Amino acid sequence: MKKLLISPSKMTLGEQENQIYQNILKQSSELSLNLMAVKVENHPDDFLPWCYELLNASRDRMNYDLLEPQQLPILKKLHDQLISAISFLQVKTLRIAPWPVVSVFVEQHKDVIALDEQLRLVDYIKSIREQSLKDMIPEDLLAFSGKHMASLDPSTYNFDVEWFASTKSAKSFHQMLSDLPGDFDAALANIPLEGDITQYEYQQFVAAYSKVFTDNNEKPTLAPATRLLAMRRPDLFTPITNNRLDALCGALGVPKLKNSDFERYWQDIVKGIQAMSWYKMANASNELEEQLVSIKALIPCFFYYADTKTPDSSNYIKLLSKPKRSTTTTGKTQRRGKESAEILVDRALAADDIPEHIRSKRDSIINEVQKGRGVNETISLMRTIFG
To answer: What is the mean pLDDT of the chain?
Structure first.
């Protein structure tokens, strides 16, 4: 372990990497005795695999029974630093990587980053993108804006809506989005669905978006705005979240954005990514690359740290793992509005494999879905009862 800890001092590290290394060493010194008890056989020569090895050693191979309670927060901070460092180093490769390298990286890591599930979210957003926010059912509005709730039936929303950029902590944003969706529509109307977008059009969006907040005595926040922009134009706008902002800004070589830096977001993030060679040369030679080209501004999200546990952290997977609702359960169920239930049921009944006698039970299915039962669950029940 000692050899592992000191090996980056012999690597050629840039100023940012060296600062990261020093911060990691500072946390490691508080855990030195525990770390020294961990056997290390892999000694990488580069800083990125070094971060992976130290994270693996300190998280998965350390004897937690020997840790003092006061050491647990220190260990957690060490892990957070290593994860942020890995994200920074991987996103930083985008500054020099050509398109073939980028697309191969995404394909090779598709299982770890739950790529299929993330692309299902992208495809779903594409199917509702031309709708106004005002006309969306509540579940679709949650999917577009990036907030998970139990009302999202996994048989219809077979993805975690919080991929790319969760907005669940933006309470004021979601309250106003629920109360004033037309005002957010007016802001997004400044962003064309096709073609290039000028800085003036973006500024018009920012002005309209900010007005929604200031008119309600709230401060406009950047992060949820980038989620809306990214879902409207995933080929041009990269979403940001506070917990990944250090890694993203560091990788792009720009100062960290504040949550009110709308102008710098355009200059440093949007235009910065568009200036990269892989972004400009992105082209499709297979089906996966065709999907990636259409959402190329989201690609940096695939370069953040992920491991084998990442797919299981999906809210969609967690919903699938929940016990089925039973008639003996006394807990509350998630009721749905009639309009939402009708739209969700009609989508499911439009499938080619739904027989006519099941379609004729539309009203009964809607009633059950309104009560909180899943759409596919209800249709399956109808199939069992009526053959």
So the answer is: 91
Question: Rounded to whole angstroms, how far apart are CA atoms 276 and 331?
Answer: 52
pLDDT exceeds 50 at position 328: no
Is it the case that residue 230 has pLDDT exceeding 60?
yes
- Residue 112's pLDDT is 96
Is the distance from CB of 155 to CB of 375 less than 8 angstroms?
A: yes
C-alpha span between 301 and 238 (Å, rounded): 8
**pLDDT grade, residue 326 (50/70/90)?**
very low
Q: Give CA–CA dist 358/375, Å, rounded.
A: 13
Alpha helices in 72-214 (DSSP H): 72-92, 99-108, 115-128, 138-145, 171-179, 181-188, 199-214
- The CA distance from 122 to 47, in Å, is 33
Distance between CA 261 and CA 96 in Å, rounded?
26
Q: What is the DSSP string of 300-318?
A: GGGGS---TTTGGG-HHHH
Name the burial class of residue 63, with classes exposed (0-12), middle (13-18) and buried (19+) by CB atoms within 10 angstroms of its CB: exposed
Strand, helix or coil for residue 279? helix
Question: Residues 102-125: what's their mean pLDDT?
Answer: 97
Could you tell me if 40 and 93 are in contact, meaning their C-beta atoms sit under 8 angstroms apart?
A: no
Note whether 344 and 139 are within 8 A (CB): yes
Give buried/exposed letters for 17-29 (b at 16+ CB in 10 A, else e).
Answer: beebbeebeebbe
User: How far is the C-alpha of 248 from the C-alpha of 308, rounded, in Å?
Assistant: 22
- Tokens 């199917």 label which residue? 127
> Assign residue 347 a region: left if phi > 0, alpha if psi is -120 to 50, beta otherwise?
alpha
Six token digits for residue 20 = 């990261």
User: Is the confidence at residue 387, as pLDDT, over 50?
Assistant: yes
d(CA 365, CA 373): 9
How far apart, in whole angstroms, are the C-alpha atoms of residue 180 and residue 185? 9
Token couple for 175: 């309250």
Question: Could you give the CA distance from residue 149 to residue 366 in angstroms, rounded to a whole number?
Answer: 20
